[in-house]
Amino acid sequence: MTNKIPMTPEGHARLSAELKRLKTVERPAVIKAIAAAREHGDLSENAEYHAARERQGFIEGRVMELEDKLARAEVIDINKLSGTKVMFGARVKLVDEETDEEIAYRVVGPEEADIQAGLLSIQSPLAQAILGKEAGDSVEVNTPRGVRYFEIIEVGYN
Predict the structure, then answer these.
(1) What pTM was computed for the model?
(2) Which of 4, 97, 123, 132 would you label with 72, given CA atoms 20 to 30 Å apart?
(3) Range of 35's domain?
(4) Would you tell me how many other CB atoms lie within 10 Å of the CB of residue 61?
(5) Are 118 and 124 in contact (CB under 8 A)?
(6) Spatial distance between the Cα atoms of 63 and 84, rounded to a whole number of angstroms
(7) What is the H or E stretch that residue 66 is in?
(8) Rounded-to-integer distance, Cα 136 and Cα 130, Å
(9) CATH of the domain at 104
(10) What pLDDT digit, counting tens, does each position of 49-91 carry?
(11) Of the residues 42, 75, 108, the one at which a domain ends
């Protein structure tokens, strides 16, 4: 049984673009670099060769990882979602009940999460706490810095 990975169309496109770049640009470039380094002779002391082989290993590993994630991706068109409860794809505005700091996130799949860009993994403790809740609800979240309390001020799918 393969477990599906929820993903927005944007996240799927980003991973697909990275995979294409690795296969069409990075892979051929590293193969050329290995061939060029081989021409320099003794491979045991050839730093360029070893660096290129290491880079090749990274590229091949990342290609396999991306192919697996894309094969298991369940693309969810968030433009077709609506409602008042927090679920995958929701844009959520929260206020920290202790600091009154407002924060806004979109709940996305784990492969797209980027907290700095406001993309919150559906698997994160905060997302788990707010799933199924509505504007006006308060939640308690266990974080690495201790228990925090948030109030949901807005839920949308635009």
Answers:
(1) 0.77
(2) 132
(3) 5-75
(4) 10
(5) no
(6) 38
(7) helix 47-72
(8) 11
(9) 3.10.50.30
(10) 899 999 999 999 999 999 999 999 999 888 788 888 999 999 9
(11) 75
